[in-house]
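User: Teach me something about this protein's shape.
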Amino acid sequence: MNDMIESPDTKKKNRIPPGQRVTEKWPVLQYGSVCHIDPEKWRFTLSGLVEKERTLGIEEFMSLPRVTVYSDIHCVTGWSKLDNVWEGVSTSIIKNLVTISPEAQYVMVHAENRFTTNLTLSDFFAEDVLFAIKHNGKELTPDHGYPVRLVVPRLYFWKSAKWVTGVEFMAEDKRGFWESHGYHNRGDPWMEERYS
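Assistant: First, the predicted structure itself:
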């Protein structure tokens, strides 16, 4: 296990973005019902602008090097949960699994139920972004994205897709699920980029 990566937002004097309130709970929010995934059938696919597409099963994914990240969560609905410790696979590990085309500037993160969310390559590969498998020392529950969820600490929490199934590398930006339904394309909580 590496040293803990501290998300830059946790070092701010005021850690609460405008329009947010702190909660101790971790509310469960998603479109549709909670997914219950059989880990033996779960697959993680790297596709799009890569030299060769790659798919990992659960055992291969879980054997990848892990990081721990200390971060805050900011939900677009107005709650913030401070002091979260995540364990999982850094997005930077992806660079060792496939050869990404220089044309790639964006990613579309794919998840169960055809859910998607889009990110710039720089947001996706930020040091504190990871595919989490544990939260505060415990395996994620289905409510919170078991077996794997993306965590993008510096953006609103809808960007942290639950039940992730893969990453598609793209030359041009395309809007994901919530971004196509009126949410901001980037979602910086400090800029209050809630809606488009």
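Now, about its shape. The mean pLDDT is 94. The longest helix spans residues 58-62. If you'd like, I can walk through any region in more detail.
User: That's plenty for now, thanks!
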